[in-house]
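Work Package 4 report. The design task specified in the project plan requires that, given a folded chain encoded as structure tokens, an amino acid be chosen for each position. We show below one input record used in the internal validation round.
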């Protein structure tokens, strides 16, 4: 599997380099959105806290008086190929099967935002503008050069072990580079990247914001989970990060169940969860915010108390000051 990933990484990096070269030389041209575009992306395969940052940015601009919209490919949703509107800022118009799990999670968490889904991100930006939204926040957009971005934000873990989508040199395209906190090495890493790239660089830290019953807004005290017996379930790109956050919070699940990223939870998977829950004698199940949308309301799980862990990022205030200034002058 590791060999396959490394081979895929090499091929992907070569393709991305060729594509970036074509856009840089004017052989291909980016389309311009009628509203400013903030892109959040990375250069590694797998999860890197992109969606939590997208949600934080959307929330920030909502509070600042903007009408922001999330623009997403909607991976594995039926809207992916032809496009669709998940939320118009007043109502959620479809489900996760149509729009994908991450856009659906965003629409539920932030009901005032727009959520526009489809491979053609420029068409989604135009649709967002037509519906009265004035800012597009592009989820996982660093490699989507077909669309011009006013601000390119890239998250990067200097200690990450995942294969790369693009080479390190691609970070020169970033306007803002967010480096994952590396403990005592953070200052040295930041200095090293500052010498190599012109981007503004800010450190970030991943935290557990809270654990919520059934995905609702009222958080439950962590002491409840430390005392009780739980199982942990997830279908995300980096499950070890989820389990590590629980461990840092003092929560030790009796069982950990891992499914592939964007897993749709067919009946056989639900049976596996139920069997593990019963065998372990657990009192509740903890999952991710992305997964709760797909597990909530499943008939087979109605007798299992469901909780979701919400992941957040801690960033320097200067990051949002800089980002707001760039959007204002876009």
């Amino acid at each position: 599997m590791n060999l396959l990933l490394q081979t895929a990484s090499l091929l992907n990096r070569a393709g991305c380099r060729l594509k970036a070269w074509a856009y840089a030389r004017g052989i291909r041209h980016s389309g311009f959105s009628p509203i400013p575009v903030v892109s959040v992306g990375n250069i590694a395969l797998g999860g890197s806290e992109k969606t939590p940052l997208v949600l934080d940015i959307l929330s920030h601009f909502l509070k600042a008086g903007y009408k922001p919209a999330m623009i997403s490919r909607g991976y594995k949703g039926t809207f992916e190929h032809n496009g669709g509107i998940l939320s118009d800022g007043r109502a959620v118009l479809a489900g996760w099967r149509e729009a994908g799990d991450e856009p659906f999670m965003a629409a539920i968490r932030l009901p005032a935002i727009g959520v526009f889904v489809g491979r053609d991100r420029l068409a989604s930006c135009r649709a967002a503008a037509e519906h009265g939204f004035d800012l597009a926040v592009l989820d996982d957009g660093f490699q989507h050069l077909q669309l011009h971005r006013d601000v390119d934000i890239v998250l990067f873990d200097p200690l990450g072990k995942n294969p790369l989508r693009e080479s390190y040199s691609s970070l020169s395209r970033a306007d803002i580079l967010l480096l994952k906190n590396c403990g005592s090495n953070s200052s040295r890493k930041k200095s090293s990247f500052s010498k190599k790239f012109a981007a503004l660089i800010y450190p970030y830290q991943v935290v557990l914001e809270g654990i919520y019953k059934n995905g609702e807004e009222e958080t439950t005290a962590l002491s409840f989970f430390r005392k009780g017996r739980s199982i942990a379930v997830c279908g995300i790109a980096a499950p070890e990060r989820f389990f590590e956050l629980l461990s840092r919070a003092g929560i030790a699940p009796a069982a950990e169940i891992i499914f592939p990223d964007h897993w749709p939870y067919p009946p056989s998977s639900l049976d596996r969860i139920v069997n593990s829950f019963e065998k372990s004698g657990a009192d509740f199940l903890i999952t991710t915010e992305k997964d709760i949308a797909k597990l909530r309301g499943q008939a087979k799980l109605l007798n299992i108390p469901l909780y979701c862990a919400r992941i957040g990022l801690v960033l320097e205030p200067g990051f949002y000051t800089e980002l707001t200034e760039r959007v204002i002058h876009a």
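The chain has a mean pLDDT of 91. Validation will be extended to a larger panel in the next phase.
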